[in-house]
Design goal:
It contains 14 helices and ten strands. Helix 2 runs parallel beside helix 3 (49-62), helix 3 packs parallel to helix 4 (78-87) and helix 8 crosses helix 14 (293-314). It starts with a helix and ends in a 5-residue tail after the last helix. It is globular, with a radius of gyration of 19 Å. The mean pLDDT is 93. The protein has helices at 5-10, 27-35, 49-62, 78-87, 104-109, 121-129, 153-163, 177-185, 195-198, 207-215, 237-247, 252-259, 263-269, 293-314; strands at residues 16-18, 40-43, 67-72, 92-96, 113-118, 134-138, 168-171, 190-193, 221-224, 231-234. The strands form two sheets. The chain has an eight-stranded parallel sheet with strand order 1-8-7-6-5-4-3-2. It has a two-stranded antiparallel ribbon with strand order 9-10. The chain has two domains: 5-205 and 289-314, Alpha-Beta Barrel (TIM Barrel), CATH 3.20.20; 217-283, no CATH class. 42% of the residues lie in helices and 14% in strands. By secondary structure, the protein is α/β, with parallel strands linked by helices. 50% of the residues are buried.
Length: 319
């Protein structure tokens, strides 16, 4: 895409970025997306430092294309993860779930391009003040990093675009080329896609979880746990427990005990579809196939071009 700032910033062919999702975004998926012309991202949120290092090295062994790492800033092993990124000379870092002031300058001083994920205009402005190279504006349709304000992507994008001049990436509810084109119409210069890549052959999550995603329908997810970290969950036994706790007026510390440790791993990586936490975006209702990541990229770009041509045939509205 000519004159696209995101493509130029990352050195990629297409303005399509695979989200760094916990338990789904390992080296196989990131490499496949990068090889297909997009930007593959490793999800460090589900990795210890030694695991992240291993995934980076495996990814480098199979592709020389640009790639990135998503780094949730509230992660307890942050300094060790940062050490891995610098040692392995990771070129692009997407930070999320925390204050971008903490690490942006440090990473940029060491040659990293830094993008921050935001859910509101105020967070976007703070990210720009912190010196990031661009932002991801993610609506509450998404599976993770959801805003407590519950601002939809279609509302958030133009608000952020009006507020900043930096490169802008859209996320939340984007799984098709049609949605990609809509995001561009609202001011985005690239899209970040998560849920669609969960249902890919290369995603590292459990096959049972992938099948649960493609079997889901409208209304199968709900945004919850806003007192802790807002996430969108597929409805299962764990979700029903969360719902009961809310009905009983449970305080955040009780919800934290229910969530415990390893709940997301149990559901998405180990395939416990009842007691596990099953994070996925609202757009899962549109996904009905598990296909290679390269086919997802091709499918989205083809639909983008087809839809653009159709709209051009419609032409302007006479006033």
């Amino acid at each position: 895409m000519r004159n696209n700032r995101i493509c130029q910033l990352f050195g990629i062919q297409y303005p399509l970025i695979q989200a760094g999702m916990v338990w789904a975004s390992g080296w196989r998926l990131a490499a496949a997306v990068s090889e297909a012309g997009g930007l593959g991202i490793l999800g460090a949120g589900s990795m210890h430092p030694e695991t992240l290092e291993n995934h980076i090295q495996k990814l480098k062994a199979v592709t020389n294309k640009p790639f990135g790492v998503n780094l949730p800033l509230l992660y307890p092993e942050m300094e060790l993860l940062i050490d891995v990124l610098i040692r392995e000379q990771v070129p692009i870092v997407f930070t999320s779930a925390g204050n971008p002031r903490l690490w942006t300058s440090f990473l940029k001083d060491r040659g990293c391009t830094v993008i921050h994920v935001v859910s509101s205009v105020s967070f976007a402005l703070k990210a720009i003040e912190a010196g990031v190279d661009g932002v991801v504006a993610e609506g509450f349709e998404a599976g993770g990093h959801n805003g407590r304000e519950e601002t939809t992507t279609m509302t958030l994008l133009p608000l952020v675009r009006k507020s900043i001049s930096a490169p802008l990436i859209a996320a939340g509810g984007i799984a098709t080329g049609e949605a990609m084109l809509a995001a561009f119409a609202l001011g985005a210069e690239a899209v970040q896609v998560g849920s669609r890549f969960v249902a890919s052959l290369e995603a590292s999550c459990h096959e049972a979880f992938k099948k649960k995603v493609i079997d889901s329908g409208e209304g199968s997810t709900e945004l919850t746990l806003k007192e802790l970290t807002p996430v969108r969950l597929l409805k299962n036994s764990f979700y029903e427990q969360v719902k009961r706790h809310y009905a009983e007026g449970a305080k955040p510390e009780i919800l934290a005990q229910l969530l415990g440790k390893g709940r997301a791993k149990k559901g998405m990586f180990e395939g416990d579809l009842e007691e596990g936490e099953l994070e996925i975006g609202q757009v899962a209702a549109l996904i009905d196939t598990i296909i290679p990541a390269s086919a997802i990229v091709e499918e989205m770009l083809s639909a983008y071009n087809t839809t653009l041509a159709r709209l051009q045939q419609i032409g302007p509205i006479d006033l």
